Amino acid sequence: MEAAEKYFKQLMARGKDDLGGVKLTASWETVVGAVGEFTHVLEYEGFKGFDETSRALRKDSVST
Fold first, then answer.
1. Domain spans of the chain?
2. Which pLDDT band, with edges at 50, 70 and 90, does 59 fall under?
3. Residues 40, 22: contact at Cβ < 8 Å?
4. FRET label pair with 18: which of 11, 38, 47, 51, CA 20 to 30 Å apart?
5. Do the beta carbons of residue 37 and residue 57 sit within 8 Å?
6. This prediction's pTM
7. How does residue 15 score in pLDDT terms, banded at 50, 70 and 90?
């Protein structure tokens, strides 16, 4: 949980312009079934926003 929190805080701190308008829409932890799994829903500003975010994260240490 701490790793996910750190990652998404860093991601959101990058700002809308730097990452193509990505925002964290929802997150939850599974507590029934595959316990310990996390699901994160990210929202992009269209396919262009997804492409810009993906490109920026490939060049960046935040995604590792």
1. 2-58
2. confident
3. no
4. 38
5. no
6. 0.59
7. low
